[in-house]
Amino acid sequence: MTNHTARMGSVKTLVAALAAAGLAGALLTGCADANSKTEPAAAPAGPPVSAAIVAEKPVAETQEFSGRLEAIEVVEIRPRVSGYITAVNFKPGAEVKKGEVLFVIDPRPYQAEADRAGAAANAARARADLARLELQRADKLLADKAIAQREFDEKSASQKELDASARAAQAQFESARLNLAYTRVTAPIDGRVSKAEITLGNLVDASAVLTSVVSLERIYASFDGDEETYLRVGTRAQRGQAAIVKVGLANEEGFPHEGKLEFVDNQLDARTGSVRMRATLLNADRALAPGLFARIQVGSGVAEKAVVINERAVGTDQSRKYVVVVGADSMAEYRPVTLGPVVDGMRVVRTGLKPGEKIVVNGLQRVRPGAPVTPQMVAMDADATAAAVKADAKLALNTAAKE
To answer: Where are the transmembrane segments (predicted)?
Structure first.
């Protein structure tokens, strides 16, 4: 009886414990449900990106073209008389001055001819002088009626003939002197001479090219501009308002050489839509040589307000250019844009953006249109790229460390 009573007490105690445990579980479950209803889960944060405010500032737009440098003056040196070359007085590639003797052609035959022509001219002049004296005497005799009119007329005609012969002989003498001078082949301009195409001892005539000389003080940069550039600067250049042109060589960064647009052709090529243009540059340091490839930047010189962004903010979707705009709710928005030229390291945007909008300048690869982002603001200028890259690298390192 005692054992039965003890077992019944143990059962009642177990049931009471289970009931208490169930009630406690229900209470805990209720509390958990209540907490879940009062504290909703936070939305996941978007990937970190660098963003900047779209700027607007006065910009003097420029266009870039490829072209070639050309000498303003190019002279082929040819002999004006024939003969054997007896001297070559320059080093190939040297700078020469106008009038400097480059070649000497054997002058002895021309000296002899000049001496002969000079003697003949002197003799003709002496005969003409004698005829003039005789005509003066005949004039006095005619006044005294000592000679007939016919004799006077003959002496007058003879004097005129001898005077003409004297002038012809003098002209032959001058021609001989010129030929003698042409045996010394001189530089017609200041510039740089090429190599001697015909060397010492060779017989040359007027058809031979001895060498060439190109000017150096100034130089042309010739290129084919497009229709937009023609409309922007062509009319101003034709009115004498020369646009600024900057030139860079293949081994140079930027455009260190500055000149002025001095020629725009009178028509565009309808097949290519291009127009010939030419700028003039000073070449005091002789760094520019004819024939070199040149990168040419043409500016209008007139600053107008334009929307500008960092080049790094521009993405490419096949043939379309786009940027990612960060909305007020930090959502990424795909935005196609039409781009202009690069000016002072900033890209001009013609359509698609307005000043004051916020765009992603670094981290485009982590952004999906319509998804949230976590923007970190940087400056919208040419130096923002470096700052954005550093910030991006720092964020990537922090993210990797947390993982």
So the answer is: none
Beta bridge partners of 211: 77
> Domains, the chain, ranges and CATH?
49-58+305-402 (2.40.420.20), 65-72+214-299 (2.40.30.170), 76-211 (2.40.50.100)
DSSP letter for each residue of 97-119: -TT-EEEEE--HHHHHHHHHHHH
Q: Is the pLDDT of residue 133 over 90?
A: yes
Asked whether the predicted pLDDT for residue 10 surpasses 50, the reply is no
Please count the other Cβ atoms lying within 10 Å of the Cβ belonging to residue 389: 14
**What tokens were used for 141?**
């005799």
Q: Helices 149-182 and 108-143 sit at what angle, rounded to 10 degrees?
A: 160
The Cα–Cα gap between 181 and 169 comes to: 19
pTM of the predicted model as reported, rounded to 2 decimal places: 0.65
DSSP letter at 314 equals -
Report d(CA 403, CA 269) in Å as an integer: 62
Tokens matching residue 343: 């000016």
Residue 244 CA: distances (Å) to CA of 61, 161, 185, 297, 298:
11, 66, 40, 8, 6
Give CA torsion, residues 65, 67, 69, 72, to 10 deg. -90
List strands edge to edge, sheet with 338-343.
55-59, 304-310, 346-351, 338-343
3-state secondary structure of 6: helix
Query: What residues contact 182, with CB distance under 8 A and at least 6 apart?
Result: 79, 80, 81, 105, 110
Rounded distance, CA 86 to CA 351, Å? 71
Q: Phi and psi for 274 in degrees, rounded to 5?
A: -115, 165
Collapsing DSSP states into helix, strand and coil, what is residue 153?
helix
pLDDT above 90 for 114: yes
The H or E element that residue 168 is part of is helix 149-182
d(CA 51, CA 15) in angstroms, rounded, equals 66
Amino acid at 300: S
Q: What is the residue whose two structure tokens read 């003498």? A: 173
Mean pLDDT on 342-370: 86
